[in-house]
Amino acid sequence: MVENFKKLLFVSVLFLSINCLFADTYSSNWIEKKVKNNPKGDNREIFSFENRIYLVEGLRFSDMDNIKMNASENDNNLYTLNGDKWKSLDIPRLNTGEINMGGALIKDKIWFFGSFNVLSKKFSGDTSMLDLKKMKYEKIETEGKAPYFRYDHSMTGLKVGEDIYFILMYGGMVNDSVNGTKVSYLSDELFLLSNKCLHWEKIEVKESTPGKRKGASFVTVGRNMYLSGGIDENGNYLDDLWLVNPFGKDEVFSKIQTGRKIIPAAYRASTVVEDRYILLIGGEAKINGKIKSLNNVDVYDTYENSWYELEKISFGISTGSALISDSIDGKKTEINCFGGKTMNSKGNWERNDNFYIYSFAKNEFYKYLK
């Protein structure tokens, strides 16, 4: 019996050794980074500039009647990650208690459209910009007919020259006034703003659009722009993917058909780009009739027109924020994911202050996909 036990033990050790030897050496895990002094606001956006991580505290609304923000918490809502602590930077806002509703980072500037003032309870359709070199907010005077104020819209940027780029905005929930009556409706409009002439232009679309939606993912890969997910006017969670060409003569929007359909029907997923890959992290979705926060990481390969999966996060996350950056030693690339909200076991939303990092060898992201 002892001999049999020894043989069984030997076989088990041998099996484990072989598995370790041939295991995927490129696999990695989401590692939690303990951070302190988390900003108290909601819908915080993180971004990287000159090898530092910054955070802009903002708010996008899913329910206009449930605004619970203290204006004093949003006067200086720019932070930087200093070691394991968020440090508030004393950057005066354009207006006290004002919260930006959406933005796009291009080079050293973040462009915003729309804001909500928690003191006056008023919305604006202003265009503003945060200059990261000057560390200063500026209100931008634009020409053309600016879009009506909206929230939950999607923005991205397209660089077309050394110092020439466009800011693009799609959809969102529009707040308008018709004959003195306030009305809200979802939009399927595409707008473009040049950083040079500062002229807002509505792109005229001859064919069908991706439809009215809010909370969609909108990103740029090279010279191509992609739109996916969100919620339509009937409350449906969308799982489509579109190629966007604002300069197309015949077709501005082209629906992409992929061979492997694992496109998540996600609303407010955290979206980042690594080389040719688009990563959709978490988001909200309706599963078996119930709204849940997702913990999946779905990856679209723009070259192969295929979907893949990356290791899941340990918790569901919605309205979070993510960025790609180099590790401190410069040897690896890191996916940083922070904030948002998650649904607890009782089915209630809770604010999420978790900061997770996924590391991989430079230029070898494809080895981590499945």
Description:
With 370 residues, this protein is mostly beta strands. Helix content is 6%, strand content 43%. It contains 1 helix and 32 strands. It has one helix spanning 2-22, and strands at 30-32, 45-49, 52-56, 78-82, 85-89, 98-100, 103-106, 109-117, 122-131, 136-140, 150-151, 154-159, 165-170, 173-178, 181-186, 190-194, 200-202, 217-221, 224-228, 241-244, 253-255, 270-274, 277-281, 284-287, 290-293, 297-301, 306-310, 321-326, 332-338, 341-343, 349-351, 355-361. Strands 6, 7, 8, 9 and 10 form a 5-stranded antiparallel beta sheet that branches. A 4-stranded antiparallel beta sheet has the order 1-32-29-28, with no helix packed on it. The protein has a 4-stranded antiparallel beta sheet with strand order 2-3-4-5, with no helix packed on it. 36% of the residues are buried.
The outline comes out as globular
Helix % is: under 10%
Mean pLDDT: 79
Structural class: mainly beta
Number of strands: 32
Main sheet summary: 5 strands, antiparallel
What's the end-to-end separation, in Å? 43 Å
Q: Strands, helices and their partners?
A:
Elements: H1 2-22, E1 30-32, E2 45-49, E3 52-56, E4 78-82, E5 85-89, E6 98-100, E7 103-106, E8 109-117, E9 122-131, E10 136-140, E11 150-151, E12 154-159, E13 165-170, E14 173-178, E15 181-186, E16 190-194, E17 200-202, E18 217-221, E19 224-228, E20 241-244, E21 253-255, E22 270-274, E23 277-281, E24 284-287, E25 290-293, E26 297-301, E27 306-310, E28 321-326, E29 332-338, E30 341-343, E31 349-351, E32 355-361
